[in-house]
Model the fold of this input.
Amino acid sequence: MSKRVVLAYSGGLDTSVIVRWLADRGFEVITYTADVGQGEELSEIEEKAKMAGAVEAVIDDIKEEFAREYCMPLMRAGALYEDKYPLLSALSRPLISKKLVELAHKVGADYVAHGSTGKGNDQVRFEASVWALDPDIEVLAPVREWEFKSREEEIEYAQKHGIPVVATKEKPYSYDRNLWGVAIESGPLEDPAAEPQEDAFVLTVSPENAPDTPEYLEIEFERGVPVGINGNRYSELWKLVWDLNEMAGKHGFGRIDMIENRLVGIKSREVYESPAGLLLLKAYDEIESMVLDRFTYHYKITHVRHPYSEVVYNGLWFSTLRESLDAFNDNIAKLITGKVKFKLYKGYGDVVGRSAEKSMYIEDLATYSPHDSFDHKAGAAFTKVWSLPLKVAGRVRK
Ligand code: ARG
Done:
């Protein structure tokens, strides 16, 4: 085996120390850094990777692929883990894994490496994804096995090896950000009873600092794809998601504060911001509720949303199950053409209007006014037959 490894590299302290640590153990390290919409300048990444000891640094803009192939299927699935978390971190891991495997094949590396710890979900997502795509690749997770017990020890090692440690006054939080939102962890957030401080947030303002006037925002869909906001059409999906984050975040919409069950059995306090994710999920569901017959809509709610969220959360993106659920959702997507109007105001962001090309909402049937076309007499027979099982049970009990 060649001792060549492709490392998922963020440019932060952990992954920089990993570069050196692997190089010290005889590995030729090629770093891979993806732009998934984390909003960070990546121009210094190559220099950083090389200073840490990488032989090559690859930087890749995959925002559009991430938006199209990962965020959109999640939106179409209506998936929220534990009914709350829009799965933003869980969503980027399979794509990054796929890119690591492709690069490993290209440069002839037998190993890939990541910077996840041994107590999180990300290790599982990376490794399950990598092995689904290439079962013969070896995965290295240095953080799970190395000797450092604290950030201080890592900094000491970094300084000893000439790895630049940026001495900016760092926030006490750890962030994982992409187009679909940001996960904020650690520091004061580890006390689940304590309200998150304002300085923790990056995409949203607090409701009290949001504008005093409400704003309307209309999202337009064509065949399951969001194509415009307030009449402005987008040719790039990532840009639409990016702009939605800004438009809704400035009204304080999109915060989530929850206790989450991790795959490894730990409960953790998680704080997320996902203005665009939550809006798109709601908007999509709104059109579904208009265009799907009751049977299909209820099937989707009970048998697709929740299973899909678990599949993604638990690292099973590259599974037949996910592909099959996508096939169901893609079939529905053909019907999703329409517009959804939101009102945003101080943290509130709900649907206030909707229209759809294939709408099954028939005013003549729904109305309580004189042009009502529903056959009221049919209601009596229907109700009689529908109630029959309960009537019989009532008789038996009596
Ligand atoms: N708990 C979330 C998840 O498992 C967020 C993880 C954030 N990842 C990170 N490396 N900070 O999806």
Notes: Residues 4-63+85-160 form a domain with the Rossmann fold fold (CATH 3.40.50.620). The pocket of arginine is lined by residues 89-90, 121-122, 174, 176, 183, 185, 260, 270 (CB under 6 Å). The mean pLDDT is 96.
